[in-house]
Design goal:
Number of domains: 1
Shape: globular
Strand content: 5-15%
Strand order of the largest sheet: 1-2-3-4-5-6-7-8
CATH superfamily: Phosphoenolpyruvate-binding domains
Largest sheet: 8 strands, parallel, barrel
CATH class: Alpha Beta
CATH architecture: Alpha-Beta Barrel
Low-confidence stretches: none
Radius of gyration: 20 Å
Number of strands: 8
Structural class: alpha/beta
Length: 290
């Protein structure tokens, strides 16, 4: 089954599909190992891995290559976070062609203006495009895809921009009319109230996608009860875990004056060999090297 079809079937048949952010093949493999349904090729994580702000500074080529190597590393669907689509509707068509060719299962494109600020940044710029302009981007994306199962997810930042429920619903409906397969609604509130309200008011068949970073108390059990939220994305927990682990380990090594204290607390090198596929490589060496 193609990854596009697999992801679309998951959103249709499962009560809830869950994916998690990654920025490199190692993180993607660890996510797959943990049992997630897919990988979120996160613009925030990829920007953070380059140690630069998530403010449209990563080029399409950089994000595409980071996404491509994750697709190659796992046997699970990868959803690409393409921010605003790297330009206008014509740029979006080119972007869709490249990401679909890279083996991505779906893309998420948001209705903010370029360049964007990351959504949860305090005091960030959260300017939205006109609805008609973003509809054009969605229509262009739909026309550019070759596989009808390649999902186009429209992300509205109306709640992030403080424009309220009516505007968020209006935009979501307009984007579905333009051909979006699902609508991602984002919120920076510390409670899930905005998302719950949006979910209860949503009356179209197109499923809802959420990213509960700011409101972690909304568990998968509660999400499932709402009924129309079909995809949950854990957007930045991988890179945050890496920052915490590296800061702790590096700090301990300097404080201890060596690795003698941390050595026993770290996964063995053999674990890394397994993630790299070394056992399969050695088996092929025995079979083919003569």
């Amino acid at each position: 089954m193609r990854m596009t079809t697999r992801l679309k079937a998951s959103l249709t048949n499962k009560a809830l599909t869950h994916i998690i952010g990654a920025h490199d093949p190692l993180g993607a493999r660890l996510a797959e190992e943990a049992g997630f349904d897919g990988i979120w090729a996160s613009g925030f994580e990829i920007s953070a891995a380059h140690a630069i702000p998530d403010a449209s500074l990563i080029s399409m080529s950089q994000h595409l290559e980071a996404t491509r190597v994750m697709v190659d590393a796992v046997g699970t669907p990868v959803v690409a976070d393409i921010d605003t689509g790297y330009g206008n509707a014509i740029n979006v068509m080119h972007t869709i062609e490249k990401y679909e060719a890279a083996g991505v299962a779906a893309i998420v494109i948001e209705d903010k203006s370029f360049p964007k600020d990351t959504s949860l940044l305090e005091g960030g710029r959260q300017e939205l495009l006109r609805i008609e302009e973003f509809q054009g981007k969605i229509e262009a994306a739909v026309s550019a895809r070759k596989d009808p199962d390649f999902m186009i997810v429209a992300r509205t930042e109306a709640l992030i921009a403080g424009q309220g429920q009516a505007e968020a619903k209006k935009r979501g409906e307009a984007y579905v009319t333009a051909g979006a397969d699902a609508v991602l609604v984002h919120s920076k509130q510390k409670t899930p109230d905005e998302i719950v309200e949006f979910s209860r008011a949503w009356d179209l068949d197109a499923p809802i996608v959420i990213v509960p970073t700011a409101y972690p108390d909304l568990t998968e059990a509660r999400i499932t009860e709402l009924g129309n939220i079909k995809l949950v994305i854990y957007g930045n927990h991988g890179v945050r875990a890496i920052v915490g682990a590296l800061r702790d380990t590096f700090g301990r090594i300097r404080a201890d004056g060596g690795i003698h204290q941390v050595h026993g607390d770290l996964p063995p090198v053999s674990d890394v060999f397994d993630l790299q596929g070394v056992p399969a490589m050695k088996a092929n060496e025995k079979k083919y090297l003569r």
